[in-house]
Model the fold of this input.
Amino acid sequence: MRTPVFFDDRYPMIATAKHNGILAADGTPLKRSLARALRREKLRALILVMPLLIFVLLTFITPIANMLLRSIDNTIVGDTILYTVSDLNDWNGSDPPLPPENVFRSLYFDLFIAVETKRHTRLGSRLNYEQTGISSLFRRSGRKLDDIGKEIEKTLIASDARWTDGQTWFDLFAARNEGDADPELFDRQFLRIQRLQGELGNIDIDFMPSKSIAKALPLATREYTAWAIHTASIEGEDIAQTRPWESIPVALIYDMQQPDFAIEIKNWLSQSSPHPIEKLSTESIDYPLDFTDILRKIHKDWGDIEVWQTIKVHSNDYTSGYFLNAVDMRKSLDGPTIQPENKRILITLFIRTVQMSLIITLACILLGYPVAWLMANLPMRTANLLIILVLLPFWTSLLVRTSAWKVMLQQQGVINETLVWLGVVATDNRLEIINNQIGTIVAMTHILLPFMILPMYSVMQTISPSYVRAAKSLGANDWTAFLRVYFPQSIPGIGAGSILVFILSIGYYITPEIVGGTDGVFISNRIAYHISRSLNWGLAAALGTILLMVVLVLYWTYDRIVGIDNVKLG
Amino acid sequence: MRFTRTILAASVLALSAVAIAEEMTIVSWGGAYSKSQLKAYHEPWTEKTGIRVINDDSSAEAVAKLRAMNEADNVTWDVVDVVAADAIRLCDEGLALEIDPDKHLAQAPDGTPASKDFGDLLVSPCFIPQIVYSTTFGYRTDMVGDNPPTDICAIFDIDAYPGKRSLEKRPINNMEWALICDGVSKDDLYDVLATEAGQDRALKKLDTIKDHVVWWNAGADTPQLLADGEVVMGSTYNGRLFSVIEEQKQPVAMLWDAQVFDLDGWIIPTGLSEERTQRALDYIYFATDTQRLADQAKYISYGPARNSSAPLVGKHSELNIDMAPHMPTDPDNAKNTILYNYEFWADYRDDIDAKFQAWLAQ
Done:
């Protein structure tokens, strides 16, 4: 009998552990010491996998997450026409039949900055996905927007030549001293430009708007501040030496026409050195500034209620619009509505993708199973030769293999020629086995077959032949022995192969593109189109997200029915 | 010891060689087209400046990739070859540099400023035109009997020309041809196509041959289909047909009727360093002068974009045949032409493409 260590006086430290836990050799509690050792171990393991982890995170997870986020991201509208979007909130979309004047006014100035920063056509393309014609509406409006400003500029310069000077404008809007500064207005405009242009960083801008002039000329001060921030940070020019955009004279005249102007400007002038603004008589500023009218003259579509409804519906920073589009619906004022019939295609493609992937998986099982069985049951040397034959296609480019199928399957191709030569089909009645679903299924089954055979083979290799022998010695015939003894043991291989093949084929697009014709293409072909041609990345992201979800749901179902533990890769 | 020293010396040498040999990445379409640019532009340019040119065959995805590069703030391309429609889009998005033709491009030999020499082809302030190409039809001479087609509407005439046709798997050009053959005059074309009824009308016309069409995605498809006798006629870029007819000597002939003119040319991406921008501008100045543009026609049958280059177009470099009659702009070929409508398709592409694809899937 051995005495328990606790009571052995050769281990005094362990003996004392009765009171404060077991202690290690150096006197620290064993628990802590163990944890430390384990932590070190874990840390070492983590350091070892860290490069891979960082690599995967940077090159795989981040870009995918970033791409998926685009499916709901709609900040471009609010970033580009900030004030218009907030003013549009007060319009219910149908009554009155056009948004009120203040919306048009906001749009004029929003659009002006967007044109100067080259963001307006980007917004045009975004909204053109929803309504045809908006792209050119924005582009054309962009070209004519400064016409009215130029006219007003001429009037100003006619009254005093100093208006040509950047300094004149600077003196008007810049704060005269610390107390007069309006940092809030500055910050708001800074954010506005930042939303348009991206991070501006820490730049020194030698301008702060004046509080007192902002009272007299609120719109012009706002627009001048935005201009100043843009000019100083992006163009890197000296604000005081540069003449502002033509939108600022427009804003100036608008402000001067407002009732409060007369009093406020007197306040400002009383504390200021003389400025050319004094000379602007009421007649010279009597310029008809109806922004609804101005914009409708620039392009008649600004009088189209549908354009405004589209902008209003798609003005939120986050949108369900792309997801709705991805399932053949669209966002409208009355909530989600179904697309007109002649534009519905995506659901059809989703269903077809899943259906054809299932067919391809099934074909792979049927063709691959005997091969895998043969490989598992042949002597090693012959089996190795077969494995090389199975792997051979892997060493040939995917494109080459697919193109080879073209040569095989086309109407003047090898198969048809042979059949005609044999007299099986008439020469004017050749089989159509490419540029349709058959072409896609044949070519993809061939390409994906190794992914089915290899897991099957590795599972079958582990099945001991003695089971089948035992079954036979107990009186089972070949068929029963296979069906009740061998086959159940090979199911994990089928499961693994099927998951591989199905998931690979559901996202395939090169092969369907080349041999699929019109009815053999997959949803991924549309995703590729929207990524590289139409540039509708939001819709592509929504389609991709749905595809990912479909795969996950099917995977989950598979797990519930077959059990993922039943999947073996070897 | 001596061995390590040799290696060290060699690597220092290699490193300095890398530092000296300047490189620029030029993006184009690949294949015979890139080869013609290599011969006509890149090789003389490298000879003159010592700057090595790296080719990247990514023009088909240029807009998407440039947008991604711009978002990542890492533009790796110096000069990009794109079609005019893409150049307009890139310019719109601020992804391409605006060019002043008279400042940045060479004069014609007789002193005509570049803006006049290129004329109407300067369709965007960012776009430097290089060639005029056309999308047109080729047909198998041995499959049409004694009745070779001369009219675009032959593609819709299944009785006279039985067999398959290959058409591009997109609405652009196909819709126009369908409407023309449905009796719409060229002047009204886009007014009709802008309406829902007009689009239906075009699709209905295409419906009549839908079962007889092989749809292509890549410009190389139709030449292959024609060469294999899979189709009796098919649309593609005229340069591709030239190589099937003259280089591969296949029994194929051109159907120039209602060919659609389009432009291809250079843009310089924005977001390059000043040094790289200047180098790209230098390249453009060099590669788009009168002689250089005419030189390209020695290797491929696309028309030079400068008026002053046309008289300089000579013989093919290897086949030694006159290139002028093979140009889409040759008066004999250009009797009935359509000009790609950039403005229209910029607006209607998304909408009509969705309808077209839905129609295809039916």
About this structure: The two ends of chain B are 75 Å apart (CA to CA). Residues 15-20 of chain B have pLDDT under 50 and may be disordered. Residues 135-261+335-361 of chain B form a domain with the D-Maltodextrin-Binding Protein; domain 2 fold (CATH 3.40.190.10). Residues 342-361 of chain B form the longest helix (20 residues).
